[in-house]
């Protein structure tokens, strides 16, 4: 489709440049390829576990664009591949985590998909749901205490995680102290096999914000531009000292919870197929082509390049050695002390 000013001017882009819109799309494609690769490697017996962000691509790529690199801090959860990529981790760093190799930032000793990077400002986290949220609030408290006014924390979790006590305690504390933090809930309607309706009687998570005295907002997480606008405004609010915001992005989990789960034991294929009609990846591709931001030929070239990058990252990470058994207690106990001695 030819590039026309009229088509471009119709796009509500919230200040995002063509370059940023293309970067968001590349991130979304990359998430899909890396997701599939993780599942393939698991079925080949090469990695013990994988899970995917499929269905969360737009939400995560859009939110990452609102993160100020070198300043903000991200406290993510295990499904946040697109946020990790979007704040600067490479597919190779992602693969090092999935393959649990020694060169991984955690020395290959974290759970797969639990990325961290001090350089990128990505906090290390655990699999215990909501355990990272008080940590994130602690970082926000430190930013305020040190008068580092231009920094904010972005902390994410799933819908099911909002049932944890730590989630409520963290938001309450952050609201009282007006901390520079944004609580972003990625609502994909499921918590493994527990549907939203069995998790809460009042299904609009964003409305809980009023109970803590802070603003809340729900947005379409299948739309990366709408996501960016919501997260950008909330992060700016946090950075300008006005306090926290609770955001709820609506999306869907297209894959099983993880490679250890069979979702057909608790939801129907028809439900998944119905949500596929709104798949954010082809929808965003069509939008960019319609507005002349990418031509169909450029889309094809981009897809090839993203797959090449995924293949290179896989091969390079697989060729790396595992951690040595003798390193088991490094960073765990001070000095050379061994617990059995
Ligand atoms: C405290 C705690 N309870 C239970 C689990 C097991 N568990 C792992 S993921 C998960 C579902 C979480 O769902 P949600 O917060 O909606 O995130 P999603 O996986 O859907 O993105 C559960 C119950 C856990 N890791 N930690
Ligand atoms: Mg969920």
What does this molecule look like?
- With 341 residues, the chain is an alpha/beta fold.
- The protein has one domain (5-327): Rossmann fold (3-Layer(aba) Sandwich).
- 42% of the residues lie in helices and 9% in strands.
- It has twelve helices and seven strands.
- Helix 2 crosses helix 12 (296-318) and helix 6 (132-145) runs parallel beside helix 7 (165-176).
- The longest helix has 26 residues, at 18-43.
- Bound molecules: thiamine diphosphate and magnesium ion.
Strand content: 5-15%
What separation lies between the terminal Cα atoms? Answer: 71 Å
CATH level-1 class: Alpha Beta
Strand arrangement, major sheet:
1-2-3-7-6
Topology:
Elements (H helix, E strand, L loop, with lengths): L4 H6 L7 H26 L13 H8 L8 E3 L5 H6 L4 H9 L32 H14 L7 E6 L6 H12 L4 E7 L2 E2 L2 E2 L13 H4 L3 E5 L3 H16 L5 E6 L18 H8 L3 H11 L5 H23 L23
Parallel strand pairs: 1-2, 2-3, 3-7, 6-7
Antiparallel strand pairs: 4-5
Bound molecules: thiamine diphosphate and magnesium ion.
């Amino acid at each position: 489709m030819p590039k026309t000013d009229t088509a471009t001017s119709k796009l509500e882009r919230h200040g995002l440049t063509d370059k940023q819109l293309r970067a968001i799309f590349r991130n979304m494609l990359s998430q899909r390829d890396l997701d599939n690769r993780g599942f393939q490697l698991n079925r080949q017996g090469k990695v013990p576990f994988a899970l995917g962000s499929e269905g969360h691509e737009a939400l995560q790529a859009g939110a990452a664009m609102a993160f100020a690199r070198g300043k903000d801090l991200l406290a993510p959860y295990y499904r946040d591949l697109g946020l990790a990529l979007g704040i600067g981790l490479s597919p190779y760093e992602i693969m090092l985590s999935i393959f649990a190799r020694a060169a991984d930032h955690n020395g290959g000793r974290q759970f797969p998909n639990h990325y961290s990077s001090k350089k990128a400002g990505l906090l290390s986290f655990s699999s215990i749901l909501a355990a990272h949220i008080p940590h994130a609030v602690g970082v926000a408290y430190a930013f305020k205490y040190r008068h580092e006014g231009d920094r904010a924390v972005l902390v994410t979790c799933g819908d099911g995680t909002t049932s944890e006590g730590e989630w409520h305690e963290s938001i309450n504390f952050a609201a009282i102290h007006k901390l520079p933090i944004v609580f972003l809930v990625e609502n994909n309607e499921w918590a493994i096999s527990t549907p939203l309706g069995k998790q809460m009687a009042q299904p609009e998570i964003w409305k809980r914000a009023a109970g803590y005295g802070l603003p809340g907002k729900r947005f379409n997480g299948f739309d990366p531009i709408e996501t960016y606008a919501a997260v950008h405004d909330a992060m700016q609010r946090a950075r300008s000292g006005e306090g926290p915001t609770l955001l709820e992005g609506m999306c869907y989990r297209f894959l099983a919870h993880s490679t250890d789960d069979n979702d057909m034991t608790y939801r129907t294929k028809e439900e998944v197929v119905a949500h596929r009609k709104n798949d954010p990846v082809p929808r965003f591709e069509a939008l960019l082509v319609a507005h002349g931001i990418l031509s169909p030929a450029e889309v094809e070239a981009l897809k090839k390049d993203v797959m090449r990058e995924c293949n290179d990252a896989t091969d390079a990470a697989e060729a790396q050695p595992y951690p040595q058994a003798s390193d088991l207690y490094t960073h765990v106990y001070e000095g050379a002390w061994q617990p059995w001695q």
